[in-house]
Design a protein that fits this description.
heterodimer; A: mainly beta; six-stranded mixed sheet; four-stranded antiparallel sheet; 12 strands; about 0% helix; globular; B: mainly beta; seven-stranded mixed sheet
């Protein structure tokens, strides 16, 4: 089965600082990769996705992520954190090599300090 | 508006009382899925369906049933709920692409408490 690892269940950054949320996956075949955000008491919203093509993917709200096949990583970054970025972030993988399941990481809770 | 709807949004029930959570999507997606979200565990897939009358187990199927009689609907059935099924449940749908699943579109969630 596929596994998705998000290092750091809680990350705190100061407002205006770089946001870096880490995600590694276990598939040997390049999967489709996604980042979702969940604001308190809400559902999940897609931030960005990688399927094919350019490995640097830009998403909503100034976030971007880079697919690195050699590192099996898909880390999420934002140059300057805003208070409104405080939320739970989930990395997810769709791996054609293991059927049609969708695998999520355990999530990273981002706190932005004023 | 393209959306996934779930009902009810909140449910408190007692052990052993059968319940159904409905899910419907209006995007003509082939793929539908149910997840449960628990603190520290992220989202775990319960069941998924690739099309009408085609369903398969995810990682945590025990205690749940599903059916896919119509493309748009994918109800989740708990025939004898237990307290360990207290959780936040999400339904999602997506397209089936050549290289895998497209992005999942999520419903608003159903918060279930089993006493």
């Amino acid at each position: 089965a596929q596994s998705v690892t998000q290092l750091g269940s809680h990350v705190s950054v100061s407002e205006g600082a770089l946001v870096l949320l880490r995600c590694n996956y276990s598939s040997s075949v390049p999967p489709y990769l996604f980042w979702y955000v969940q604001y308190p008491n809400q559902g999940l919203q897609l931030l960005l996705k990688y399927t094919t093509g350019a490995t640097l993917v830009k998403g909503i709200n100034g976030f971007e992520a880079e697919f690195k096949k050699s590192e099996t990583s898909f880390h999420l970054t934002k140059p300057s954190a805003h208070m409104s970025d405080a939320a739970e972030y989930f990395c997810a993988v769709s791996d054609p090599g293991t059927g049609n399941q969708f695998y999520f990481g355990t999530g990273t809770s981002l706190t932005v300090i004023p | 508006e393209a959306q996934v709807t779930q009902n009810p949004r909140y449910l408190i029930t007692v052990t052993g009382k059968k319940l159904t959570v409905t899910c419907s999507q209006n995007m003509n997606h082939e793929y539908m899925s149910w997840y449960r979200q628990d603190p520290g565990l992220g989202l775990r897939q319960i069941y998924y369906s690739m099309n009408v009358e085609v369903t398969d187990k995810g990682d945590v199927p025990e205690g749940y049933k599903v059916s896919r009689k119509e493309k748009r609907n994918f109800p989740l059935i708990l025939e004898s709920p237990s307290p360990n099924q207290t959780s936040l449940y999400f339904c999602a749908s997506s397209l089936l692409l050549a290289g895998g699943l497209g992005e999942q579109f999520f419903g608003p969630g159903t918060r279930l408490t089993v006493l």
